[in-house]
């Protein structure tokens, strides 16, 4: 048997050391369970960082992938391919968007949104190029998106950052207003800050951003890379707020584990991206789009969205109960919506993540002291209860 340590050693010799992987190597997944190289199994409450929408090796996604694999893998956007249109039809049917640009990741989707904002205003003859983003936001690792990311630690060594990007305080409309100017091209915001610690918007905050954007004449961009596709109880998080953005970006859960990103916008704004202005070789790849279309079908027609809403409430209630039972000496807050949840702890969470893994439970951190949970949306009630029992035990001991 190859051990976890042997695989890790091989990786150290040939991979760029930009990750610090946990000391297990996952070789197989089934539903909400993952299995390491030594045959140990783990309940997956992190879902590949909010990505394994329907769990691992879902039969309908496998069928969609295998059917498309037998037909066509890749021809580029020099040709029209039907799976891309199929997916765009499904996405436009369930939100404000009328036109979709496909790419391969969340960073690329945000890059496209930011470029669209600048291009749209330039086409109107306006000199608007500034972006207002938020402290603690996370938007990706390309130079433009990492510049928009509101955590200076991610900029270190890569300066100078893209100019004209300012960071307001999340949930503070006055700080946004203070940064608006006739040069503002867009406000970019996560409807719930994920990496930044599962911070939810105060009532009226997103509506206030819409108002400020309209008053200023700039665009409102919602980064739903982590919150989209049923993660927070509705198909898209902004649909709980009664606010419609000009652009929404998706990735992660859209493909259920296959790499894909999307920038979703109105037909009017999309008109700024004429042929030659923006592109991606792999964007809209038939394999990725066929799988993502099956993800959307399963969410809407397979009843997964309704199930996820109920499971989100169960997980949230369970985490609230842990916070109440262990008290403010250990747990500062239980936050989040649907199946995107966080427990803010008093101590840094790294030791707790390790202890949970040792007991067969996978969770991750968000910021230094928040334990994040973003399990597959198909998680069963007894799996949630199993995870909560381990968490409670570990936090009581080490928190
Ligand atoms: C809100 C948000 N936007 C963008 C990204 C970047 O996505 P990717 O890693 O696919 O480039 C992430 C990744 O965690 C994210 O959470």
N-to-C CA distance: 35 Å
Helical percent range?
Answer: 25-40%
The number of E-state strands comes to 15
Main sheet?
7 strands, mixed
CATH superfamily of the largest domain: Type I PLP-dependent aspartate aminotransferase-like (Major domain)
Low-confidence residue ranges: none
Order of helices and strands: HEEEHHHEHEHEHEHEEEHHHEEHEEEH
Oligomer designation: single chain
Average of pLDDT: 97
Beta-strand residue percentage: 15-25%
What structural class do you assign from the helix and strand content?
alpha/beta
Looking at the overall shape, the CATH architecture of the largest domain is 3-Layer(aba) Sandwich
Tally of individual helices: 13
Radius of gyration, in angstroms, nearest whole number: 21 Å
Which molecules are bound in this entry?
pyridoxal-5'-phosphate
Shape: globular
Briefly note the CATH topology name of the largest domain: Aspartate Aminotransferase, domain 2
Description:
This protein has 399 residues and is of the alpha/beta class. The chain has two domains: 4-58 and 303-398, Aspartate Aminotransferase, domain 1; 72-300, Aspartate Aminotransferase, domain 2. Helices cover 38% and strands 17% of the residues. The protein is built from 13 helices and 15 strands. The strands form three sheets. A seven-stranded mixed β-sheet has the order 4-10-9-8-7-5-6, with helices on both faces. Helix 3 packs antiparallel against helix 10 and helix 12 packs across helix 13 (381-398). The longest helix is centred in the C-terminal third of the chain and has 23 residues, at 304-326. It is globular. The two termini are 35 Å apart. The mean pLDDT is 97. The protein binds pyridoxal-5'-phosphate. Pyridoxal-5'-phosphate binds at residues 105-107, 110, 138-140, 190, 194-195, 223, 225-226, 251.
């Amino acid at each position: 048997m190859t051990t976890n340590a042997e695989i890790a050693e091989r990786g150290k010799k040939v991979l760029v050391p930009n990750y610090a992987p946990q000391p297990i190597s996952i070789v197989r997944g089934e539903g909400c369970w993952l299995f390491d190289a030594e045959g140990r199994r783990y309940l997956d409450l992190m879902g590949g960082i909010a990505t394994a929408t329907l769990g691992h090796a879902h039969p309908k996604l496998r069928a969609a992938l295998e059917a498309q694999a037998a037909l066509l893998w890749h021809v580029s956007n020099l040709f029209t391919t039907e799976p891309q249109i199929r997916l765009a039809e499904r996405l436009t049917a369930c939100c404000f968007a009328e036109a979709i640009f496909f790419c391969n990741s969340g960073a690329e989707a945000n890059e496209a949104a930011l470029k669209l904002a600048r291009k749209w205003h330039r086409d109107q003859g306006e000199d608007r190029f500034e972006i207002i983003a938020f402290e603690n936001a996370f938007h990706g690792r390309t130079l433009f998106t990492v510049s928009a990311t509101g955590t200076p630690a991610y900029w270190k060594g890569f300066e100078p950052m893209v100019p004209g990007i300012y960071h307001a305080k999340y949930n503070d409309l006055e700080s946004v207003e203070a940064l608006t100017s006739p040069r503002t091209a867009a406000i970019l915001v996560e409807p719930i800050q994920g990496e930044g610690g599962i911070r939810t918007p105060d009532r009226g905050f997103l509506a206030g951003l819409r108002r400020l954007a309209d008053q200023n004449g700039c665009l409102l961009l919602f980064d739903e890379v982590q919150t989209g596709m049923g993660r927070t109880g509705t198909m898209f998080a902004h649909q709980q707020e009664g606010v419609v953005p000009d652009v929404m970006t998706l990735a992660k859960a859209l493909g259920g584990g296959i790499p894909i990103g999307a920038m979703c916008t109105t037909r009017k704004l999309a008109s700024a991206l004429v042929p030659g202005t923006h592109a991606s070789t792999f964007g809209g790849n038939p394999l990725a789009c066929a799988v993502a279309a099956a993800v959307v079908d399963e969410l809407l027609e397979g009843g997964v969205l309704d199930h996820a809403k109920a499971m989100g409430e169960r997980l949230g209630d369970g985490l609230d109960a842990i916070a109440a039972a262990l008290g403010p000496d250990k747990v500062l807050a239980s936050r989040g919506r649907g199946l995107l949840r966080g427990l803010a702890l008093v101590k840094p969470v790294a030791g707790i993540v390790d202890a949970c893994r040792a007991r067969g439970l996978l969770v991750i951190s968000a910021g230094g002291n928040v334990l994040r949970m973003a399990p597959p949306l198909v998680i069963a009630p007894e799996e949630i209860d199993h995870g909560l029992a381990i968490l409670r035990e570990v936090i009581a001991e080490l928190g």
